[in-house]
Every structure is written in structure tokens, then in C-alpha cells.
Amino acid sequence: MSKAITDLLEILDLERIEENLFRGRSPQVGWQRVFGGLVIAQALVAAQRTVEKAVAHSLHAYFLLGGDPATPIVYQVERLRDGRSFSTRRCQAIQHGRIIFTLAASFHNPESGGLDHAFAPPDAPPPEDLPDEGEFLARFGEFMPEPVRRYFQRERPIEMRPVEAGRYISRGAEADPQQKVWVRTSAALPDDPAIHRAALAYLSDMTLLDTSLIRHGRSVFHPGIQAASLDHALWLHRPFRADEWMLYVQDSPNASGALGFSRGALYSRSGALIASVAQEGLIRLKTAPGPNFAQL
């Protein structure tokens, strides 16, 4: 197993402090803020550990303050309801005595049969026909913002193969604010479905906010943009493995008033709709030195 995956599994294996109270840490990789997907995943793990049998099918979260990577995060779970079919939990992430993130999650006891339908995935080349990350870095590395290049140069727990590679790295204004990227963990995961759900929650925050900037020829690393995820919603529809390729299809129906709204759908290689995602984020134009994320 790769070190990046080992580190991810260790980070998702929260320390139980007390009943309904857990502690998580962040990888020390030089980022100024904790990656939003990590907080989502850890909060989901904390909430899931207080549910006996039901599995997560939806979550809704708000990012309140930027997380400090140097400080552990305490997750406090509130048991709102346990019914025959559904359980509901609220989880708050706390640092330095302040709530930095809040999540509400619903858990469902699996049911067989019933009605079933889903949209089909759009056309996309298979991941094998796209450059792997080494080829991607060699081809586009000189055009990447420095933080992105450093990200691709180190071993990472999530492998990505953008379908529109040029748009992802060096873009002009595009008519259609949408993108597609193949994603999976960079090595095999244990068979526990809860780990795969947490890994998908982790990667669901990747590239999504950036989609709202495609129409405007910018990215979240553009020096004239102040960008931050504000809220995040995830619905899990069907069983999946996060260590197998998934097509992450994203679009942005709206941007206005310094806010960008993006949607995502994750499909398996066989075309099954695995999950749906929605997110709104700050995409403020910098006209003067702006406030940091903790002051938003």
C-alpha cells in the first residue's frame, strides 16, 4: 500500500476521546488551510461511528472558518434521531475553542427492490486514453500555478485524469462552465464500505469550486481571485469502490454576487450514477487586500 493511502487511512481513523467525541489531525504538507474535503470526510467518519447499522446516504455541510493544519480538530457528534429506517446526526468540528465546520448527515438502513432510474453519463474517453499524472506533469507542469505543481509532484492519495487537460491548467474564458475528470484513490483500499464513503467525501471537494471560474477564464489559484468553499452537499446513491475509476462530471449553472455555484455527478466505469454533489463557494474579485478566510 502506498504511503499516501496509508496516511489517508490513518487520518480517517479518528481517535475516540469520549462518547460522541473524536479527534482528527491534518497531513503536514504545507497548505495554509485544512483541505475542505478532509474535514468533510473526518466529520462523516465521526458521525458514522455513532450509528449502529444504517449507512450514510446524504450530508449537508457549512465551512465556517478556515482550519489550522497544525492543530488537531475535535469532532462533536449530536445524535438527533434513530428510527427504524433512518438515523440523523449533527457533527461540529472545533479548533481553538471555535466551531470551524458543521455537518448534518442522514443514514439509511439499506432496502432492496423499489423504483430505480438514473441519468446516463456523458461521453468521455476512458482514463487509459488520458495522460497519467507523470505525463500530465511533464506536459503541463510549466503552465501550472506553483501550489498546483507542488501538489502534483508529491505522492497523493487521490489520482486524477482531467478529460479537458488544457482547460484545467491554462484557460481562457469558455462558453460552457463544465469539466470532466476521472478520479480514484491512488492505491487499493480495504473492503470496508465506510472507508470508501469517506474517501469519496474527501475527493468530492476536489476541482468543484474551480468549475464556477471556467466561464471567466480564471481558476481558484488566480492572483485576482479570493476563493473558498462555503457549503457542500453530497448524496450517495449506489454502492461503489473509491479505488476504482469514477467519472466526476461538473458544471456551474450560476455565478453572481461573488458566489459561484457548482454541481457534480460521479459515475462508475459501468455508467452507474454513484453520487451527486452541490457546492457554493466564494469567488470574490480582489480589488484591494481582502479579509482572510477566518473573517468571512
Automatic annotation (TrEMBL):
Q: Does the keyword Acyltransferase apply?
A: no
User: SUPFAM superfamilies from the xrefs?
Assistant: Thioesterase/thiol ester dehydrase-isomerase
Return the Pfam families for the record: 4HBT_3 (PF13622), Acyl_CoA_thio (PF02551)
Note the Gene3D superfamilies from the entry: Acyl-CoA thioesterase, double hotdog domain
Q: Report keywords, A-Z.
A: Hydrolase
Positions of the Acyl-CoA thioesterase-like N-terminal HotDog domain: 30-108
State the superkingdom. Bacteria
Task: Outline the extent of the Acyl-CoA thioesterase 2 C-terminal domain.
Answer: 150-282
Q: Which NCBIfam families match?
A: tesB
Family label: Belongs to the C/M/P thioester hydrolase family.
What is this protein identified as? Acyl-CoA thioesterase II
Organism field = Candidatus Rhodoblastus alkanivorans
Tell me the gene name. tesB
